[in-house]
Design a protein that fits this description.
337 residues; mainly alpha; rod-shaped
Length: 337
């Protein structure tokens, strides 16, 4: 700027009228006009230098790159199971407008802009190892299949419910349903028979249940005793005895079973078999007067006089028999003695 000021002062001094130089200027007008034009060009050139320097500093590619438009949003990285893109996406770079066309310098090369845009849009690869990337996505566990109960399992469930039932009718309904699902369910048949006996069900209903039960369980003692008892009520002692003989009497210690069998033998006048069973009963229940009375009658019929008198006396000593039976015992004791 100091150079420009100096040139301006020199120009003013030349333009100031000087008496000494006036003849010379008058003599050479053409030369003064040419020299004045030269100074104008020098001043214009001097004024242009700062503007050129400012432009170089502002638009130089080494100092600042031309501004690019905002890049599209960065693409999300692919999941491990997706294949990464083999080549970068091609992005169209729009032309950058210049602020001043007369002073603007061409922007950076198109290849550099494309490489910068591609680098900005290139997805970041996962840093996990190849082994972890190869692991397939976890599958949701399959739903646990519902277990379907078999008819036997359903019958067993109904039987357990019936065991805790309070109402006899509800218990009977559950047990009958269980037997429809599993006819060979021994627990359900046993509990149903006991329920019917408690409620004093009809003989026909009991007979049907017992006969059906004996087809599945011919050696079951409860079914055998119930069937024999029903025959005794019908005065069918032969059928009762045949039913009881399905079980080995020597292997049974059940008093009710043995009492039925001994009574059946006695009613059929099979006194030896009856006497043997009554002998066992007196061992099991020595305080029972009926067992001693049955043993005495069988021995009396077998002409075992002394043994019969002893059995009659045992029955009389219990003091649990009614008057008619007591009179009969006393009569037989008088005859045997």
């Amino acid at each position: 700027m100091s150079l420009i000021n100096q040139m301006l002062r020199d120009l003013e001094q030349r333009n100031t009228p000087n008496t000494n130089s006036a003849p010379k200027l008058a003599l050479r007008p053409a030369l003064a006009t040419k020299e004045k034009r030269r100074w104008y060009w020098l001043i214009a050139f001097a004024l242009t230098l700062p503007l050129h320097y400012v432009w170089r500093q502002t638009y130089s590619p080494q100092t600042e790159q031309p501004a690019l438009p905002a890049a599209p949003p960065q693409l999300s990285a692919p999941t491990p199971t997706q294949a990464p893109p083999t080549e970068p996406a091609k992005v169209a770079v729009p032309e950058v407008p210049m602020a001043n066309t007369s002073l603007a310098q061409p922007p950076a090369s198109t290849s550099e802009q494309v490489s910068q845009a591609s680098a900005a849009l290139e997805p970041e690869m996962p840093s996990s190892s190849p082994v972890s990337a190869a692991i397939p996505p976890s599958l949701e566990p399959a739903a646990t299949p519902v277990k379907v109960q078999t008819p036997a399992q359903q019958a067993d469930a109904l039987y357990r419910r019936a065991k805790t039932g309070k109402s006899a009718s509800a218990v009977e309904a559950l047990l009958r349903h269980a037997l429809q699902l599993n006819p060979k369910h021994l627990g359900a048949r046993t509990l149903l028979l006991q329920t019917l006996l408690k409620t004093q069900a009809g003989a026909e209903e009991l007979t049907d249940l017992v006969q059906e039960s004996l087809q599945f369980f011919p050696d079951n003692l409860l079914f055998v005793k119930t069937q024999a008892h029903l025959y005794v009520q019908q005065k069918n002692f032969a059928a009762a005895t045949n039913t009881l003989e399905q079980v080995d009497a020597d292997a049974v210690d059940d008093v009710a079973y043995l009492s039925l069998l001994a009574a059946g033998y006695q009613q059929q006048q099979r006194f030896p078999q009856a006497e043997r069973i009554y002998q066992r009963l007196t061992q099991f229940q020595a305080e029972k007067a009926e067992h001693w009375l049955g043993l005495a009658i069988c021995r009396d019929k077998l002409s075992q006089t002394q043994a019969a008198a002893q059995a009659y006396q045992q029955a009389l000593d219990k003091n649990t028999l009614n008057a008619d039976i007591v009179d009969y015992i006393k009569q037989r004791l008088g005859a045997l003695n």
